Structures are given as C-alpha cells and as structure tokens.
Automatic annotation (TrEMBL):
Catalyzes the thiamine diphosphate-dependent decarboxylation of 2-oxoglutarate and the subsequent addition of the resulting succinic semialdehyde-thiamine pyrophosphate anion to isochorismate to yield 2-succinyl-5-enolpyruvyl-6-hydroxy-3-cyclohexene-1-carboxylate (SEPHCHC). Binds 1 thiamine pyrophosphate per subunit. Homodimer. It is an enzyme of class 2 (transferase). This is 2-succinyl-5-enolpyruvyl-6-hydroxy-3-cyclohexene-1-carboxylate synthase.
Length: 564
C-alpha cells in the first residue's frame, strides 16, 4: 500500500469510529486518496460538488442540521481558499466541520510548482485547531499518530465552542491505491506491505475514548425583580428552560426566529413594540437575561442597553455580548423563588402583544397579493409539523422576525454567524439532506433573489447524488431590498450602487438546473405552491419600494394600536 493511500484510509476509518457519517468532496487530483477512502468507507455518505464554495456550505448545512462534524475535502491551491467563507460562518455560529485540504509535499512548495499555495494556517483564528499533518512515510508509529490526531480533531470540533478544524495533508504520488479497499479499509495489514498493522482498536472503538456526556451546569437563581425580560438570540440550544423561565416569572420572551423559542410564551411583535419610542420608554427593564447571539434588529440591541443588569447565559469563553452590556455570565439560570407570573408588568406586555399582533395581521390581510412580509408570516404558519425552514440573510430573516406568529413543531435555522448571503442555497440543501436522513419531514427555504443568484450552483446536483426534499421560495424584488430601508436609500447613485437590479427571472435559474418552477402571486395559493417532491423553486415577485412602504405602514399601525 502506498503511503498516501495508507494515511487517507486510516484517517477516514478513525473519523468514522468517532462518529463521521457525512462527507462532501470537491473533485481534484491531489485529494484523490481522501476522496477514494471516503467513497469506499461503508459508514460514510459522500456528496460531490463541482464548486468548492458550494461544497463547503453544503457541508455546513449538513453539520448544522445534524449537530455533528462533517468532513469537507478539496485539492490544493485556490480550492482550499474557496472554503474560507463557510469556515468563517462555522466559527461564528458554532458549527463543527472537519476541513481536509490536500496539499503538495514540502519539496514542491515555494518552487513555482503548479497549483501550490501556502496553506499553513490558511483560515487563521477561524478554526479551533490546525495541524500540518506531514507527508506520510512507511515507518512505525504513523498509525498511532494518524488515529490519535483524528480523535483530537473530532474532539476539538465538538468541544464547548464547536467549530471547524483544519487538517492539511501533503500527499506524494502515487495518489491512487494499487488495490481496491476491502469491506474493512484497514484490514489485512500484512498483505498491504506496511511495517505495522493499520487496524484501529478492537470492536470498532475509537483510538481515544471520549469522556461521558457533560453534567448539567448549576443554575444561578435570578433576583426577584418584576421588570425582567428574556432575549433568545440565534443559536442551537435548548429553548425549554427559557420558556419555563418566562412562564414562571411573566417576563416577556423576545425570541428571534432561529432561537426556536418563539412559542406560545413569546412576544412575537417585540420588534415593532420596541420601535415605538413611547412603549420602549415605558418598558425599561431592571433585568435582561439573554442566551444565544442576539443581533437581528436595532431595536433589540438598543433595548439591551436599557437594562440595569444583563445576565448572559453561556460559556465563560465565547459568550455573546455585542453591546458590551453584560454584567454577569452564568451557565444556567433558575427563576427567583416565589416568582409571580401575573404582575402589572406582565399584563402590560400581554396587552401590547395582543394589540400589535391584531394590527399587523389586519394590515397584512388587507390585500390578497403576496407581500414580502405576509409571505414570511404565512410560510412560517403553514409549514407542516416536523418541517425545517432555512431563512436567508438580509430581508427574509428580518421579515420572519417581524411577522412570524408563535408556533411549535418546525425548526428554523439560518446562517446567522456572519449573516452573509453567500452559500445559502447549498446550506439549505445540506440541512434538508441531514434533516430527512434523521427522519424529519419536508424542508423549505426562504431566500432573496440576490442570495439565490449568488449561490445558484447550489442547485446543480449531479446524477446519482443524494437529493433533498426542499422547496426553495425566492422573493424576487430585482435587487438588494434591505438597502431600501436604510440611510443609503436617499443617495443619488442608490439604484446602481445598492439596489443592483439584475433583471433575471428565477424561472431561468430553475431551467438552468432543470428544476420544477412555480410563480406565486396570491396568498391563497401558497399552500398549493408548497406541494411537490424533490428540489423545486417557487418565485414571488415584489417591488422594493412598495415593500419598504408596507413595512412603514405596519409600524404606524402598531403605534396607533398602542396609543388607542
């Protein structure tokens, strides 16, 4: 067995023993040993994509939905650089990835050799661990090194702050094995001609056994204040303790959609309530408890500054405090003893929520044509139980935040770590594949037109590749709709510099990928448009100016309802 094949087979086998079940491969020559080892391993499902950026976000979506590391493989050179945006998102949103970049051996570096760049520490501080694995040699001790390294990499990816791990693997030729892999890719070491057994621990155990599940952290009892509030930001954490805290104390629960805490106890209209100066001034909190990464609205960020005390629930390292208002960081919280859920403060928030909710729904239901905000509200409400919804950055996630009613039974995710629009199609595809492999129901994505165009390669899935049950709903307002509500809207060159009209119908994008396409105009047709099988595209065309005006009308309606 040649050294490159030995390293690849041992590394893949050990990662599978740790729990690896999914891998994404972008084709290339230097990465041949890894690609072939992954394809031959019976425990790993392999996905192949021709575009490294699309491949990396596909892996991100798989790992986000599955909550375990996914291996991502590429050849040397610019291929590895195209992984960088997904690595940054994994870092900020805590998604575990195993980045396996193939590289030229040391004798070819800094010589002008083809497809050779400096890949050492390529992703900087965005990874939890980097190792230059070294060129494989047929000497004793290599197997223990490779297998223990795989276990360390897995452990670093799933540690207290999950994220990406980067292993840079230099392969010398030959890159192709002389013999096919057996059912056990590391069996029969004597025939392989290797100086030591390639096999791992007996009974399929990993080389290094990890510790047991972490113990429940001690909860810190909160002070007995009436004017408390709970903020649930983006993150993959259990929302139940915070729903229970809201039920016990009557404190309003302000939950961003990707917190998955917007259930019966939540204040779904908090974005509009806090945008009302009179309401915000009259509802200054004594205490705010936050969890996850809040940051979706300026109103919520400003509200965090109003609290006299801000308790952040999270790890001592890496907790989210974007406004630098935290006064305490604790691992868990408990309601104050003898808390009363029916205070004047709680009743005031409940009344405001009822009035604002009615005002919003009245405006949105006033027209049969689908607006961007109504689409977000109705899509979230009409998802079947067991569904997954991927929300694109910019306006889709903000419209969900503004209009989504409380509900259970559906999981909402998005790339909120860096909040970029790149890779959103691929992330949604990966999340849908993992969701359905785990026995989940249908998957849906709500994206903007620029996000879809930015990652239309994510729709290109080759024959024989696993395909998701995914309905991609695209709001096409011919450009960057989010800028219409910002200060840039008054600039003389606004349309060219920020509006960026493109004139592309999503039907043409669907035709490029040979996908079913539906154009949706009326709100009553949404349930029928969502039906179908496989990967499919639904387009809703809107106007940026009209959408910005509608959002202003919604705020005016809430202000009037609160003043009544």
């Amino acid at each position: 067995m040649n050294p490159s094949t030995a390293l690849a087979r041992v590394l893949v086998d050990e990662l599978a023993r740790c729990g690896l079940t999914e891998a994404v491969v972008a084709p290339g020559s230097r990465s041949t040993p890894l690609a072939m080892a992954l394809a031959a391993h019976p425990a790993v499902r392999v996905h192949v994509r021709i575009d490294e950026r699309s491949a990396s976000f596909l892996a991100l979506g798989l790992a986000r939905a599955e909550r375990r590391p996914v291996a991502l493989v590429c050849t040397s050179g610019t291929a590895a650089a195209n992984f960088h945006p997904a690595v940054l998102e994994a870092d900020q949103s805590g998604v575990p990835l195993l980045i396996l970049t193939a590289d030229r051996p040391p004798e070819l570096r800094d010589t002008g050799a083809n497809q050779t760049v400096d890949q050492i520490d390529l992703y900087g501080s965005a990874v939890r661990m980097f190792t230059e694995v070294g060129t494989p040699e047929p000497v004793p001790g290599m197997v223990a090194y490779w297998r223990s390294l795989a276990c360390r990499a897995w452990g670093a990816a799933v540690a207290e702050r999950p994220g990406a791990v980067h292993l840079n693997l230099a392969f010398r030729e030959p890159l192709v094995p002389e013999e096919p892999a057996s059912a056990d890719p590391c069996a029969d070491p004597a025939a392989a001609g290797w100086p030591e057994p390639l096999a791992g621990r007996e009974r399929g155990r990993p080389w290094i056994a990890a510790g047991g599940p972490p113990t429940e952290p001690p909860a810190v009892e909160l002070p007995p204040v009436e004017r408390g509030a709970i903020v649930c930001g983006d993150g993959d954490y259990d929302p139940i303790p915070f729903l229970a805290l809201a039920a016990a104390t009557g404190w309003p629960l302000l939950a961003e959609p990707t917190s998955n805490a917007r259930r019966a106890e939540a204040v779904s209209t908090y974005r509009h309530l806090l945008a009302s100066p009179e309401f915000a001034a009259a509802h200054e909190p004594e205490l705010v408890v936050s969890v996850g990464r809040p940051g979706l609205s300026r109103q919520l960020m400003a509200y965090l500054k109003r609290a006299r005390r801000h308790v952040v629930v999270g790890p001592a390292r890496g907790f989210a405090d974007p406004q630098r208002t935290a006064t305490d960081v604790v691992p868990a919280v408990a309601p104050p003893a003898g808390a009363d859920p029916d205070t004047a403060w709680a009743r005031s928030w409940r009344r405001a929520e009822a009035r604002a909710r009615a005002a919003l729904d009245r405006v949105l239901d006033g027209e049969d044509a689908l607006s961007e905000v109504r689409l977000a509200r109705d899509l979230a409400a009409q998802l079947p139980n067991g569904s997954l919804l991927f929300a694109g950055s910019s306006m889709p996630i903000r419209d969900l935040d503004a209009a989504m009613s409380p509900r259970c039974g559906a999981r909402v995710i998005g790339n909120r770590g860096v909040s970029g629009i790149d890779g959103t199609v691929s992330t949604a595809v990966g999340a849908a594949l993992a969701h359905q492999r785990a026995g989940g129901g249908g998957a849906f994505a709500l994206l903007g037109d620029l996000a879809l165009l930015h990652d239309q390669n994510g729709l290109v899935i080759g024959p024989g590749e696993p395909r998701p049950e995914l309905c991609v709903v695209v709001v096409n307002n011919d450009g960057g709709g989010i800028f219409s509500g910002l200060e840039q809207a008054g600039h003389p060159d606004f349309e060219r510099l920020f509006g960026t009209p493109h004139g592309v119908s999503m039907e043409r994008v669907a035709a490029m990928a040979e996908l079913p396409y539906t154009r949706l105009e009326w709100a009553t047709d949404l349930p029928k448009a969502l039906l179908g099988e496989g990967l499919r595209l639904v387009e809703v065309r809107t106007g940026r100016g009209e959408s910005a005006a509608l959002r202003r009308r919604l705020q005016q309606a809430v202000d009037a309802a609160l003043a009544a």
